[in-house]
Amino acid sequence: MPLFAPLTNPVRPYAWGSVTAIPGLTGTAPTGGPQAELWLGAHPSAPSLLDDGHGPRPLDRLIAEAPEEMLGAATVRRFGPRLPFLFKVLAAERALSLQVHPTRAQAEAGFAAEEALGVPSDAPERVYKDRDHKPELLCALGDFEALCGFRPTAATAALLDRLAVPALAGWASALRARPAAEVLPALLRQALGGGAAGPDGAPAPDTAAVLAEVTTALGRVAAAGGPFAAACTAYARAARDYPGDRGLLAALLLNHVRLRAGQALHLDAGVPHAYLHGLGVELMANSDNVLRCGLTAKHIDVPGLLSVTAFEAVEPAVLTAAPAAGADPSVACFPSRTAEFRLSRLRPGDTGVRVDRADAPQILLCTAGEARLSAPDGPALRLARGGSAYLPPTTVPVRLDGPGAELHRATVG
Q: Could you tell me what percent of the chain has a pLDDT over 90?
């Protein structure tokens, strides 16, 4: 295996994806259809192809054939013979589904239960595809919008007052009168049709009528300006994209977040979230466990969702990258508590930067300019914008040059 090798990465054409954003990054011609995610990694459902000089081969197969060479002994000891992270470029033109990810313990229990019931792995109602958790970090490459975590209850009550939808007046009263951990499960259950009565004991209203009223109210509040205008604009766009979807009511409970290029969100297990619009790089544990709660035509397991959701009202933390104390200022890391991954931003500038690492693999993605990888007495590899490379663990110095270039690096935490 060479010290570094180029990757060819598959595109996932999900319906919510942008037609132009990923082609604009990679310099390829648009297909005319949505290109939602560019996957960089070794997930078995869509592995990258690595050209090690013998032609392109699936990265997961190369890792299976030589795990310690491709991953390093330390990574194999910690995570087994597989790449523990999945790196993506995400391009959202429409909202992704509202969703929550389980903890590792919840994933292990859920996977075992579905296996015991004989639920096929490809069945639409299958929730747990593997035994692992799926924390993730999203870094914006431009303006990016998301929903993240339950908004503080007083603020959601104030939003509902502004909307002035009579059927939701009981929600506002309950949010003011009861603790978040008590009222939020009841509201989410009713929003998704999992309960017959609201938090005040009143019968659940007709959903179609309420959604129509909410959609009209969102447009009114967005046009009027004020503190909830941006959030209502985003909710109204989701309502147009997913007409009649009960997930809109659940979305009203969540923080609306706007990121600028270089800002990031870290999403732990149990945090409800949805990416709404924009281009970003996403790094996550190599899992596919998702419990959806709206803005989707896919299966929604309301009891299962409620059992894994963390009903805490929080202000989401917006993260930025910073160099480690005393380290090369060309390399800035995003804070993360996750063992499976770490995301860094590299700007080699005029002096270049060393990117070698002896104990873990890494994937480099060029997100601006053009970069050059080189090693002593070896060939070089040029990475244009949108190009990527896989670097197995090595003790040989590897150098990255490229004035004006910016790269994002995924590696083990």
A: 84
CA distance 173 to 168: 9
Instruction: Inform me whether the pLDDT recorded for 193 exceeds 90.
Output: no
Angle between helices 207-224 and 229-241 (to 10 degrees): 140
State CA 91 to chain mean position distance: 11
**Which contiguous run of DSSP H or E holds residue 279?**
strand 273-285
DSSP H or E run through 76: helix 73-79
Nearest to 82 by CA among 102, 103, 95, 65: 65
- Kindly tell me the burial class for residue 169, based on how many C-beta atoms sit within 10 Å of its own C-beta (0-12, 13-18, 19 or more): middle
User: In sequence order, which residues have a C-beta less than 8 Å from that of residue 94 and are 6 or more positions away?
Assistant: 15, 16, 238, 241, 277
- In this predicted structure, what is the pLDDT of residue 328? 85
- Beta bridge partners of residue 390, listed in sequence order: 5, 363
Which parts of 286-361 are beta strand (E)?
291-294, 331-333, 342-346, 349-354
pLDDT at 375 over 80: yes
Q: What is the mean pLDDT of residues 381-388?
A: 98
CA angle 152, 96, 47 (to 5 degrees): 125
**pLDDT attached to residue 205:** 56
CB-neighbour burial class of residue 32 (10 A; exposed 0-12, middle 13-18, buried 19+): exposed
Residues 152, 309: Cα–Cα separation, whole Å: 16
Full-model pTM: 0.93
288 pLDDT higher than 90 = no
Cα–Cα distances (Å) from 154 to 230, 274, 285, in that order, read: 18, 22, 34
H or E, element range at 389 = strand 388-391
Asked whether the beta carbons of 383 and 389 are under 8 A apart, the reply is yes
Count the alpha carbons within 13 Å of 5 in the hemisphere toward its beta carbon.
23
Q: Which two tokens stand for residue 370?
A: 């053009």
How far apart CA 26 and CA 366 sit, in angstroms, is 9
From 292, 357, 385, 409, active-site residue: 292
Buried b (16+ CB within 10 A) or exposed e, 297-311: eeebbbebbbebbbb
Residues in the chain: 413
**Which residue carries 């009841």 as its tokens?**
186
Residue 292 is a catalytic residue? yes
CB atoms within 10 A of CB 278: 22
